[in-house]
């Protein structure tokens, strides 16, 4: 069985993506049909937490204030009542605000929570407007802090899936890169990842980003597999045509490191389903 759980029903540009146009049964059906065409049976959506007004109780970063326009409970009711998709959310790890984020998440009837580290303090690793690489910090410090926070995110217990685990490489050669072997940094996160037992995402989104690689790097994934953590597979699609993007390469990678099962979630309970016999039925979708 193939999954795509880290999926957005709309692009990230807030101005052009009002909830009333994208949180519709017809839009959900477009995603369901495309997923079915591509052999993806387990489909869920995970909107960014910061697009909901309730997120401002957790953190009040300028970017969140700009994005927080919609009502979280209306989103949850929409997905439950008007679609047959799993109900997820992509929630940021904000150190020091774990209790507030827990209050936001625990009160909702979600199938899973995808946990992400996008921001390191006020600046972001994957967003040009708040680019961490303009702060003057060394690549060593940025990578170290990113992986420290990733390990803490795993240990926080807030999340079911750890998203795009080496997102710090997002810009690839367009930004500084540390001199040490990347495994040095992966190890920093691995202690928390291993101890938490969290499902770790293999995300094909990196193939569409400047780095041009799957998240995480193979060496990171090997550590995760050695630690015995389960794997979750997603595309981080923001339009239907990105569903299952690059899954041929992801499945090759999973096979190469010995992963034969994928995590499936229902009301925050996890089980594993075999993906070994899955054949990728269609050609890889085009580059968006
Ligand atoms: Zn993300
Ligand atoms: Zn996402």
Count of DSSP E strands?
11
| Order of helix and strand elements from N to C terminus | EHHEHHEHEEEHEHEHEHEE
Q: What compounds sit in this structure?
A: zinc ion
Q: How is the largest sheet built, in terms of strand order? A: 1-2-3-4-7-8-9
Q: Report the end-to-end length measured between terminal Cα atoms.
A: 25 Å
Report on the structure:
It is built from nine helices and eleven strands. The radius of gyration is 18 Å and the shape is globular. 46% of the residues are buried. The protein starts with a strand and ends in a 14-residue tail after the last strand. With 288 residues, the protein is α/β, with parallel strands linked by helices. The strands form three sheets. The protein has a seven-stranded parallel beta sheet with strand order 1-2-3-4-7-8-9. The site of one zinc ion has 4 residues, from loops.
Provide the descriptors you would attach to this structure in a database record.
288 residues; alpha/beta; 7-stranded parallel beta sheet; two-stranded antiparallel ribbon; 9 helices; 33% helix; globular; binds zinc ion
């Amino acid at each position: 069985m193939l999954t795509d759980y880290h999926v957005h029903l709309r692009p990230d540009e807030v101005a052009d993506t009002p909830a009333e146009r994208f949180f519709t049964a017809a839009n959900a059906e477009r995603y369901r049909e495309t997923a079915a065409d591509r052999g993806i049976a387990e489909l869920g959506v995970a909107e960014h937490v910061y697009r909901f007004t309730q997120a401002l109780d957790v953190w009040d970063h300028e970017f969140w204030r700009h994005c927080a326009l919609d009502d979280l409970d209306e989103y949850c009711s929409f997905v439950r009542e008007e679609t047959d998709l799993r109900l997820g959310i992509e929630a940021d790890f904000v150190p020091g605000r774990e209790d507030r984020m827990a209050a936001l998440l625990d009160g909702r009837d979600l199938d899973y929570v995808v946990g992400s580290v996008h921001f390191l303090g006020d600046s972001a690793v994957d967003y040009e407007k708040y680019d961490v690489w303009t702060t003057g910090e060394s690549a060593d410090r940025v990578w170290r802090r990113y992986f420290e926070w990733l390990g803490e995110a795993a240990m926080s217990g807030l999340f079911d899936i750890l998203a795009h685990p080496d997102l710090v490489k997002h810009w690839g050669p367009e930004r500084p890169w540390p001199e040490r072997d990347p495994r040095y940094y992966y190890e920093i996160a691995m202690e928390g990842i291993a101890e938490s037992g969290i499902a770790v995402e293999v995300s094909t989104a990196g193939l569409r980003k400047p780095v041009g690689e799957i998240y995480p790097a193979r060496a990171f994934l090997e550590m995760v597999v050695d630690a015995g953590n389960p794997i979750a597979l997603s595309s981080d699609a923001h339009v239907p045509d990105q569903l299952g993007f690059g899954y041929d390469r992801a499945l090759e990678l999973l096979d190469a490191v010995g992963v034969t099962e994928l995590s499936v979630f229902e009301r925050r309970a996890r089980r594993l389903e075999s993906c070994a016999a899955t054949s990728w039925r269609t050609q890889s979708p085009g580059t968006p």
